[in-house]
Design goal:
Elements lengths: L9 H12 L5 E2 L10 E3 L4 E6 L18 H24 L3 E6 L6 H13 L6
Parallel strand pairs: 3-4
Antiparallel strand pairs: 1-2, 2-3
The protein binds zinc ion.
Zinc ion binds next to loops.
Length: 127
């Protein structure tokens, strides 16, 4: 499957180091799960997606559709968003929960840390 990789992998590294500092163990590389999540917490059945705002249609300034070839981009980007939603549904059906970390959120590190922490410390239904 062709994957679009953003030019820099920094967002992922940042999230990894933040989570690592909090003392959580995780796996990389999707672990065979729908949508290939960036970080996988097998024991908790939780995953993180680290999404680029543009490619995944985040509702923020970074995600505006280009002014040339607008139709092409609209179609392409809404296709991406649709695929994301399908993957989320499939994950849930398999009993996993997920959280999306947006590229634009990475600048607010303190806030991000809280968001990650809160999510990871939340008790799942099986404790
Ligand atoms: Zn964004």
């Amino acid at each position: 499957m062709a994957r679009i990789h953003s030019q820099d992998t920094k967002p992922e590294l940042l999230v990894r180091s933040v989570v690592h500092r909090m003392g959580f163990r995780f796996r990389l590389g999707g672990a065979g799960l729908p949508g290939r999540p960036d970080l996988v917490f097998p024991r908790m059945k939780k995953v993180f997606f680290i999404h680029g705002c543009f490619w995944h249609c985040h509702n923020c300034r970074r995600a505006s559709v280009p002014t040339s070839n607008t139709d092409f981009w609209k179609k392409k980007l809404s296709g991406n968003a649709q695929r994301d939603r399908q993957n989320y549904r499939r994950l849930k059906a398999l009993g996993w929960s997920y959280m999306v970390v947006w590229q634009c959120e990475l600048r607010k590190e303190t806030w991000l840390l809280l968001k990650l922490k809160r999510y990871l410390e939340e008790k799942g239904s099986c404790g």
